[in-house]
Amino acid sequence: MKFYRKQPIEAEQFDGSNEMVDKYELIDAGTMLGTHHSPELYLTGSGKVDVGDWIITDNFNHHTLMTDEEFKQQYAGLPVIPKNVANYLTDCKLADTTIETSLSGNIMLFSRARSHDMIHDILSWLCPSDNQDLFARAWLDGYQVEEDR
């Protein structure tokens, strides 16, 4: 799943799931015609929603739509980080850790790691400066989790 967060907006890519239909209170065109579960869904005030479109939420909790192509043109691609690093980033933010402390490897947060290998993976990934730049971008803008290989 792709998730983008940058103030003052939040964007989530529509995957067609019932959870997202409910979350954004999408209107099923079929219900207007007496049938349910139509392939046509609409976001109030924004138009038809297709799988792959982005639902943008501003800081006033208003939703608008953007096609995937429009989104790619307007926003840079999100950094891709390993799952262990994503979990570490989340733990750091939940603990109100600064990005500077997080980049140096916050030992207190490693107590949540399941193994020494996990800690080694995180520290090894953070060592190259290119990865520190990716971590900082992920911290600020959001990220995608690297698929397991």
List keywords for this structure.
149 residues, alpha+beta, six-stranded mixed sheet, three-stranded antiparallel sheet, elongated
| Morphology call | elongated
- End-to-end span in angstroms? 16 Å
Taken in chain order, the helices and strands follow as EEHEHEEEEHEHHHHE
Structural class: alpha+beta
- The averaged pLDDT comes out at 82
**Rg (CA only):** 19 Å
The number of helical runs is: 7
Estimated helix fraction: 25-40%
Which segments are poorly predicted (pLDDT under 50) over 5 or more consecutive residues? none
- Strand order, main sheet: write it out: 7-6-2-1-9-8
Query: What is the oligomer described by this structure?
Result: single chain
Strand content: 15-25%
Major β-sheet profile: 6 strands, mixed
Instruction: Give the strand tally.
Output: 9
Task: Please explain how this structure is put together.
The protein has 149 residues and is an alpha+beta fold. It has 7 helices and 9 strands, in the order ββαβαββββαβααααβ. The strands form 2 sheets. A 6-stranded mixed beta sheet has the order 7-6-2-1-9-8. The chain has a 3-stranded antiparallel beta sheet with strand order 3-4-5. A hairpin with a 2-residue loop joins strand 1 and strand 2.
Short structural description:
The protein is an alpha+beta fold and 149 residues long. Helices cover 39% and strands 21% of the residues.
